[in-house]
TrEMBL record, chain A:
InterPro entries registered for this protein in UniProt: Brix, Rpf2
GO cellular component terms given for this protein: nucleolus
Region described as Disordered: 234-255, 280-317
Membrane-spanning intervals of the chain: none
Domain Brix positions: 28-238
Ranges of biased composition (kind: Basic and acidic residues): 292-303
Identification of the protein by name: Ribosome production factor 2 homolog
Taxonomic lineage: Eukaryota, Viridiplantae, Streptophyta, Embryophyta, Tracheophyta
Top-level division of the source organism's lineage: Eukaryota
UniProtKB/TrEMBL annotation, chain B:
Chain segments carrying region Disordered: 54-92, 138-179, 218-241, 281-331
Protein name: Ribosome biogenesis regulatory protein
Record InterPro entries: Ribosom_reg
Superkingdom classification of source: Eukaryota
Function, as annotated: Involved in ribosomal large subunit assembly.
Assigned protein family: Belongs to the RRS1 family.
Any single GO BP term: endonucleolytic cleavage in ITS1 to separate SSU-rRNA from 5.8S rRNA and LSU-rRNA from tricistronic rRNA transcript (SSU-rRNA, 5.8S rRNA, LSU-rRNA)
Keywords, ordered alphabetically: Nucleus, Ribosome biogenesis
Keyword Nucleus found: yes
Source organism: Salvia splendens (Scarlet sage)
Compartments it resides in: Nucleus
Pfam families (UniProt xref): RRS1
Length: 317, 331
């Protein structure tokens, strides 16, 4: 026995349509949660990431025992949460003896696990430990700059993966129009060694320079930490191919009224609007209608005042 | 250190310096931070150069710039749906219309209502040809005298609506099988019939459900007295075993109930085994002997009167039970 469930209120219908797959995707929501045990460092890391992505992240405060992202059965809970909250990125923190201060950053495709990167957090400095001028503090939701330094990001597989994931995580919405006055943050990742990345967050200060381009000044705000890459899980080739499919290019304008014929070649249609026979202004006005003549006449007419107006020649040309 | 070539992805506001290497292995944290800050400044400056050179429009908040598309490809979060509009199988009506060659016609907003002689809308409040507005239905020759034509019309309409609902469900099921269910509709299973047939499972009422545990308790030897109860479960209606005790003081009526009980038991026993209990031959001989004695006393009457002839047949089979049984009869 099946029952058709249609949303009864417009609000629910709109929410469902928001979650439906779209041709061009602009923003990804993030799910932040933690496992059986966390350390104080990890707790602050999670809260700060949540603050950095305030409007498109969801933070769960309870501990989740059954989640083990790298094991085959341990990700069902995660997938369920992704389905319920419509999140496609997640940050999962856990602290064990074998892997202290462990952070797993992962992505979903169609609410199934796409890829995972596991990093260990070291030398963490929280936002509060930086002292800076409060006026410089980056605004919530502003589009960030990214700076990746180090050749290891290109040569080492894991760091390449981490670069992609970090970009996805902190990117924010994909937009076309950007307000240049609202640029105020930079995320900087430096590869210190083939498995260690120094991640930090700076506020931007635009200083006057001679040219149109302002001079950039960076002030360290925000969390900074060392990420030690531990494990990572790449998607299969077929899954990656499917996930990377892009929308067809719809920016090219379609040529209208042009038909390519095999025999005759390129044919075009020209539409001629109807001729308005009566209302077309004639090019050559008849002599008597010309304005100067009329005005001159009027000026002269004040003195003379003829009783019979002159008959105008019908000059039709 | 090559500074000139950074990979700049303007759509993502990203700059990537591939060629940077730390000149000397950094010793302290501050050195790392300092070096990072310097490099990052250079990178961000490069991005900003490219950014500010884009054509900008003036806005009250600041100069607006149209960003190009990001060059780094990132994976999608959901499969693409807009590209393939309708791979769903055609609905029942669509199949029929295609067969018959029926074209879709645009509906008009208003229609002329003959009854009132005005233009009314097609659906909704105050509509054309509303079922409820028909004042008179003329009887046809085929109509039976007792039937209510208005009720008939309503029943027919209801059956048509139900049929349509069934068709709609069928169409959606086919669409779901093909993977093309519209995003705002979900098909949910209401109840799984345990019976193999298509019959609807009977809806159990709340009271019955509450007493189910009590009903199952009667199967235990102690009548469910020692069963563990869930929180919120009501106590059993009948907690003990079913037993009937005879009253201590009996009334004067038909005699002692206990005597009746034992008598009925005995009668039943006797009737079953009557053929084994009664020796018919002996009984007949005794009867005959008695009779002879009486006759000899009364002197020489016809000997054969009243004498029984032994019948070897068992009394058990006939509906007439053996002479000593009085089943069910109260004395």
């Amino acid at each position: 026995m099946l029952k058709i469930k249609t949303p009864k209120s417009g609000r629910i219908k709109r929410d469902l349509e928001k979650r439906a797959p779209k041709l061009v995707e602009t923003r990804k929501k993030t799910l932040i949660l933690h496992g059986t045990k966390t350390s104080s460092v990890l707790n602050s890391v999670l809260t700060e990431i949540h603050h950095l992505k305030k409007d498109n992240s969801i933070k769960y405060s309870r501990r989740n025992d059954k989640i083990r992202p790298f094991e085959s059965g341990g990700e069902t809970s995660l997938e369920f949460f992704s389905l319920k909250t419509d999140c496609s990125l997640f940050v999962f923190a856990s602290h064990t003896k074998k892997r202290p201060n462990n952070l797993v950053i992962g992505r979903f495709y169609d609410h199934h696990i796409y890829d995972l990167v596991e990093v260990g957090i070291e030398n963490f400095r929280s936002v509060g430990s930086f002292s800076y001028d409060m006026k410089l503090a980056p605004q919530l939701g502003s589009k960030p700059f990214f700076a990746f330094i180090g050749e290891a990001f290109e040569s080492v597989d894991e760091l390449k993966h981490l670069k992609e994931v970090l970009l996805d995580l902190f990117r924010g919405e994909v937009i076309t129009n950007l307000n240049l006055a609202g640029l105020d943050r930079v995320y900087v990742c430096t590869a210190l060694s083939p498995n260690r990345v120094f991640f930090s967050h700076f506020a931007l200060r635009l200083k006057k320079s001679g040219t149109k381009v302002p001079r950039m000044e960076l002030v360290e705000v925000g969390p900074s930490m060392d990420m030690v890459v531990r494990r990572h899980h790449q998607p299969d080739d077929s899954l990656r191919k499917e996930a990377m499919k892009m929308a067809p290019d719809s920016t090219k304008k379609k040529e209208k009224n042009v038909v390519k014929d095999d025999i005759l070649g390129k044919l075009g249609k020209i539409y001629i609007p109807d001729q308005k026979v009566g209302s077309v202004p004639l090019a050559n006005k008849s002599k008597g209608v010309k304005r100067e003549r009329r005005e001159a006449k009027a000026a002269k007419g004040e003195g003379d005042n003829p009783t019979t107006p002159k008959k105008q020649k019908q000059d039709s040309e | 250190m090559e500074e000139a070539q950074y990979e700049v992805d303007l759509g993502n506001l990203m700059a990537f310096d591939q060629h940077h290497q730390f000149a000397s292995p950094p010793v302290s944290r501050e050195e790392i931070v300092k070096e990072t800050t310097e490099q990052a400044t250079k990178l961000v400056q490069a991005v900003a150069d490219a950014l500010f050179s884009l054509p900008s429009t003036e806005d009250p908040d600041g100069p607006l710039v149209k960003l190009p598309e990001p060059t780094t490809k990132l994976p999608r979060e959901k499969p693409m749906k807009g590209k393939l509009p309708k791979p769903r199988p055609p609905t029942q009506w669509e199949v029929f219309a295609q067969q018959k060659g029926i074209q879709k016609r645009k509906k008009e907003k208003m229609a002329y209502d003959e009854q009132t002689g005005t233009w009314k809308r097609l659906h909704g409040y105050d509509r054309v040809n509303d079922d409820n507005d028909i004042p008179i239905i003329e009887a046809k020759a085929t109509d039976e005298p007792g039937t209510d034509p208005f009720a008939e019309r309503r029943k027919e309409k209801k059956s048509r609506v139900d049929k349509q609902e069934g068709n709609r469900l069928k169409n959606l099921k086919n669409a779901q099988k093909a993977g093309a269910l519209p995003s705002h509709i979900q098909l949910a299973a209401t109840a799984l019939p345990i019976t193999g047939t298509q019959s609807q499972p009977k809806r159990v009422s709340k009271d019955v459900l509450q007493n189910v545990a009590g009903m199952a308790a009667t199967a235990t030897a102690s009548g469910g007295k020692f069963d563990k109860k869930l929180p919120g479960e009501k106590p059993l209606k009948h907690e003990k075993k079913y037993r009937k005790y005879l009253p201590a003081v009996e009334g004067s009526g038909m005699g002692t109930i206990e005597k009746q009980q034992t008598e009925s038991v005995l009668n039943r026993l006797m009737s079953k085994h009557s053929h084994q209990i009664l020796n018919v031959e002996k009984a007949v001989n005794m009867h005959n002997a008695k009779k002879e004695k009486n006759q000899r006393r009364q002197g020489g009457q016809s000997s054969n009167s009243g004498k029984f002839k032994a019948n070897k047949k068992s009394f058990k089979k006939t509906s007439k039970k053996g002479p000593s049984s009085s089943k069910g009869k109260s004395k």
